[in-house]
Specification:
Mean pLDDT: 81
Low-confidence stretches: 418-425
Oligomer: single chain
Radius of gyration: 35 Å
Number of strands: 13
């Protein structure tokens, strides 16, 4: 079959005038691809439009989670470089999934095609717009999933410590409650007098009421426990109470007063009762603190995602959004020993917008700053009012951004990170979200200081 006839049967070209199909046949080049052949490798410059006659080709892109088939074209479809397209290089490998035939029209013929073949050009422009919509939707979805992954990883890390503390304390609490019951029965049968009960209560109050105001080193804790264990052995008491008593503020002098008031059998029961009671109280407090931490983290996630808010613009507290965002990134900051400070102007006015989208802006900017700084670096976040706008600054003490790169950092797919570590879409999404809120974003950078500034308008008073 002649090339013209095959092109005339192409799904895209059927509504195109026949003389324009003849133009394609005259200027196009037929090419055949074997199954598995790489048509364009990642980053290759695209020089031609191609019309797929038969077969199947697909583009495979790696955005950090492994290669994935992003788009595919079969017989009757077109892609490659299209009229008015700014596509320079392919973002992934274009591979023939099966034996494929296609017609290629080199970019050098585009000016003539645009002038002479209006209907043909319009068809390819519509293809380009459909492709752009698909890519925009896909990459935005990927970036959201990436942010969700960071959120989940950070939250899992933050929840692990309090959850482990709850499990550990709950197990220990069961043992100490059993010891407390046993010691209580023994102590109840001792028939203590009023002065003896007063001496017992004195030591118990010291253990329960006096906080330990200093943080002891491991060596200091070991020395203190050894001293108490030695005292217990010297007075014929069970040394198992030594560890629990060492965690309190009880002194050897207070124990001496108790030993003076009680006989040895009653003294052993009293010390076990005090130790078990104090340990149980301490573990209950640890469970309360850990549970409160989990509650705060869940609240931070809820505030960050704004999952209980309507999908309409509302008054947004910038300071609260920054706090919730930093809660999501604490684990990453600690892993690099990065100092993160937040300063929010008192009575900072609220802005009108979408809380989840603004939190996405803060997450991307602060996350990038944490990536930029070295170990033990510093990230400063500030929010204040400047005239009719709220200004949020995210600054880091990293190496800075070279001038030749700074002009491109907001471009889609541009990234300075290693392959597989960045999509090049974070700052593009930041720019779009800020513009959606009628704001603007700018950057100042030099070695040792990079600052992103986001300005958002303050709504006029009602």
């Amino acid at each position: 079959m002649e090339l013209f006839d095959r092109l005339a049967d192409h799904a895209l070209l059927r509504p195109v005038p026949r003389e324009q199909i003849a133009w394609v046949a005259a200027h196009g080049q037929l090419r055949q691809l074997a199954a598995g052949e790489v048509f364009y490798p990642t980053g290759a410059k695209i020089e031609a439009l191609y019309l797929v006659l038969t077969g199947h080709i697909a583009i495979h892109i790696d955005r950090g989670a492994g290669r994935r088939k992003e788009m595919e074209w079969r017989g009757g479809e077109a892609s490659g470089l299209l009229p008015y397209s700014r596509l320079a290089g392919t973002p992934g490998d274009v591979i023939a999934e099966e034996p494929t035939e296609l017609v290629m029209v080199h970019r050098d013929h585009f000016p003539e095609m645009i002038v002479r073949c209006h209907e043909l050009t319009a068809v390819f422009v519509h293809v380009m717009l459909d492709r752009a919509r698909h890519f925009t939707s896909s990459v935005s979805h990927d970036e959201k999933l990436k942010s969700l992954g960071k959120l989940a990883a950070g939250l899992a890390h933050e929840l692990n410590n309090p959850a482990s503390a709850i499990v550990r304390s709950a197990k220990g609490l069961t043992d100490h409650l059993a010891g407390l019951e046993n010691a209580s029965r023994t102590l109840g049968g001792a028939g203590l007098s009023a002065p003896q009960l007063a001496a017992l209560e004195e030591v118990r109050e010291i253990c329960l009421a006096t906080p330990v105001t200093s943080v002891r080193s491991p060596l200091e804790r070991a020395d203190r426990e050894d001293a108490i264990v030695d005292w217990l052995e010297a007075h014929g008491a069970a040394v198992g109470a030594g560890e629990a008593l060492a965690e309190t503020a009880v002194t050897l002098e207070a124990l001496d007063r108790l030993a003076t008031a009680l006989e040895r059998p009653a003294l052993d029961a009293a010390l076990r009762w005090i130790a078990s009671g104090c340990a149980a109280r301490r573990m209950a407090l640890e469970i309360e603190r850990a549970s409160s931490r989990i509650y705060q983290l869940v609240g931070a996630v809820k505030g960050f995602t704004r999952m209980d808010h309507a999908t309409t613009p509302e008054a947004i507290d910038i300071g609260l959004g920054l706090t919730d965002t930093l809660a999501m990134l604490q684990a990453k900051a600690r892993a690099k020993s990065v100092a993160v400070t937040v300063e929010v102007e008192p009575a900072l006015p609220k802005v009108q917008g979408y809380g989840s989208e603004l939190n996405q802006v803060w997450l991307n900017l602060i996350d990038n700053a944490l990536d930029a700084v070295a170990e033990s670096g510093r990230v400063d976040v500030r929010a204040n009012r400047s005239g009719p706008k709220v200004v949020v600054r995210v600054a880091d003490d990293g190496p800075g951004i070279p001038d030749e790169i700074r002009k491109r950092i907001f471009d889609p797919f541009f990234t300075t990170k290693a392959v597989g570590q960045g999509t090049g879409l974070g700052l593009d999404i930041v720019r779009r979200l800020v513009q959606r809120h009628n704001g603007d974003i700018e950057i100042d950078s030099r070695p040792g200081r990079t600052e992103f500034r986001v300005r958002l308008p303050v709504p006029p008073p009602p």
